[in-house]
Amino acid sequence: MNFIAALARAGLKSWFGRPMLRRGWHALPAARLSWTGCSPRFHFRPRVLAVALGKIAAPVQVAPVPAVADARSRSGALEALRQEVGSCRRCSLHTSRTNTVFGAGSCSAGLMFVGEAPGYHEDRLGEPFAGKAGGLLDRLLGQMGLSRGDVYIANVLKCRPPGNRDPQPDEIEKCRAFLERQISLVRPGVICTLGNFATKLLSGRPDGISRVHGALQKMPGPQQPALLFPVFHPAAALYSPSNLKGLEADFDRLAVIIGANARGAARRRPKDDSRHPKPVAESETGAEGGIKDDAGGGQLGLF
Please, which residues have CB within 8 angstroms of residue 114's CB and are 6 or more apart in sequence? Predict the structure, then answer.
């Protein structure tokens, strides 16, 4: 897609207005394209322009789905989606995969983890976080009093990139619909994003994980009930003592946020909507989109 087509696709024909012609394209550095605020006279949103030009990924927009009556129906819908993923040929990754890695865990979990992409062990076994990084994740969950059966775990990509390289933008774009549908079916109260790729996709922001880890934030979109909690990817923490320390601290805070008990009795309240946190007022939102958790409060009661 060329530059003009990108503008037209985003509905930004007014970009050619007189104020922009006077200032010129050079007056808008690429870094400014990611911010939400701009002068009203430009008549466009820089974030939308950045998405159109491929600077950042558009945030996940979870399509509304009919209410699922019970866990069995929800599990059946996820299994049907798993079969669809298993036969996917949308990108070239299907030519080198051994297995697709759909996801695993409770179909009605209040806490969902989203990683980057399958690695060697995940590709062989068809399960998410099956290697050393998965062992670290299990240990951190255990310290919260939880197990894999209490949460839901998925990845941005469902197939392993060759050589464990970074996911490519076109691969993310073609695979994101599967993740969106998983989120719609599980309907978690908190989504813990593991690493840069999951965090940037679900937040729709270009901020790196080193900047935003441990900061609770609202998932973009008026219909999104979930909150995002970015943390370092366990694989990165394995090779960096500082990242490991930060990851452990973030999981300690996550345990407080979700209200997990020490014995891991992950039981829901009678009403299904109870696992979704109440809407957060703007006055409760801190810098960088993070949400303040005052002393003595902040538990969401998801478990």
Answer: 154, 155, 156, 179, 191, 192, 193, 194, 198, 202
Closest CA to 75 of 107, 104, 113: 107
> Mind listing the pLDDT tens digit for each residue in 58-111?
555 554 444 445 778 889 999 999 999 999 999 999 999 999 999 999 999 999
- Token output for 302: 């998801």
Domains, the chain: 3-52 (no CATH), 71-289 (3.40.470.10)
- pLDDT tens column, 209-241: 999 999 999 988 765 678 999 999 999 999 999
- Specify the 3-state DSSP secondary structure of 35: coil
Burial (CB count within 10 angstroms: exposed 0-12, middle 13-18, buried 19+), residue 55: middle
Residue 136 has pLDDT above 50, yes or no: yes
Residue type, 215: A
- pTM for the predicted model, two decimal places: 0.68
Judged on CB neighbours under 10 Å (0-12, 13-18, 19+), 138 is middle
Pairing of strands 217-218, 152-155: unpaired
Q: Could you tell me which residues come within 8 angstroms of residue 204 by beta carbon, excluding any fewer than 6 positions away?
A: 47, 56, 57, 58, 59, 60, 220
Which residues lie below 8 Å from residue 82, measured CB to CB, with a gap of 6+? 102, 103
Cβ–Cβ < 8 Å for 99, 123: yes
In a 13 Å sphere around the CA of 224, the CA atoms on its Cβ side amount to 19
